[in-house]
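TICKET #2291
ISSUE: user wants both folds in one file
ATTACHMENT 1:
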Amino acid sequence: MQLTINQRERQGVVILDLNGRLVSGEECESFRKLICSLLASRQLQILVNLADVVRVDSTGIGVMVESVILTAKAGGRLKLFYVPRLIRNILSTHRLLQAFDIFDTEDAAIASFAADARPAAG
């Protein structure tokens, strides 16, 4: 099963619904190119839905980490939601959970972007 990516927008946030495998090769390269394209067009609020990702390998994890870093360097945020237990376990095993903002629902993830934009109290 190859990776398909459906791109949509909600409240100014680009949502990428991934379906299939995020593995070494064409799948990871298409995800990386899409992230770079979004950043080049100054779309800096990116949300990735992993609910339908059936397999991820070390290259897939690496591309996700790279995407978070590239987005942050561009002044944006990349967040994940609906992360399957298998992927959470892989991230936890490699001590990468803290590298990601992970949400259980799309609504919570969308709301977090608005919260990021509010000035800190103090």
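ATTACHMENT 2:
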Amino acid sequence: MVIIENNFIKAQINPLGAEVVSLFLKEFQLEYMWSGDPAFWGKHSPVLFPIVGTLKDNKYEYNGDTYEMGRHGFARDRYFEVEEKKNDSVSFLLKSDDESRLIYPFEFEFRVQYQLRKAQLNVTYEVTNTGKAEMLFSVGGHPAFALPLSEDTSYEDYYLEFEKAETAGRWPISTEGLIETQPITLLENSQQLPISKELFQKDALVFKGLNSTEVAIRSDKTDHGLWFDFADFPYLGIWAAKNANFICIEPWCGIADPVDSNQQLKDKEGINKLPSGELFSRTWVVELF
């Protein structure tokens, strides 16, 4: 386990998947990350690459060939090299290899960088196309934050507060994990969305094109919560396993296949296209309070 810390936060990151497993606010002795209880969901903060969400039939086509890949890609199940480590930051590196080429025919370097700044964790995804062909990919985060944060509050005491008033629908997810063709009304000129276990009985809330680039988790019964900046990411997922005491805020550059997908990687919604030799970089930020 790799540990970084400053006077405010101590973070623990597992090189398997470059996954944050603990985010501890020192002043209040509060753990903000989900415990990873396998009875509900055995992960903490998986990194999603080179796809986000589910492919139709778990397959895609590229240059006439068909490849199979599971939900959210393979990076979360691979060991990353610790490329550079300081007291308050660390950079993890995953490179294309013979194993990755079997299911993803691109040459790449994928870095996940963690930097602490006071009570903030800054997370940067860097993708470098080291091949000769244009690279097609998606990338995203899946951090699960523990709720309730204090013993004198309950899960339902918290709410999401968006930066701006939103009129937005959730894009339903089919039983196969694909995005349906029409959204369902959820927010009507509102900044707040109450958090409840019932909210996630039909999988994640998936948003496209929000006006907000920030969202917070707050409660009227405690001063503790968090602020989350996803300005670099065009899609946002909000999710929790059924009846589990956590909530995921998921910034995505990419999205699951729609139910009517033609399975062509080049046509996939949200796919990023990176020319040979170029670098793609996106950052999300969470601040604890």
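RESOLUTION: both attachments delivered.
EXTRA DETAIL ON ATTACHMENT 2: The radius of gyration is 19 Å.
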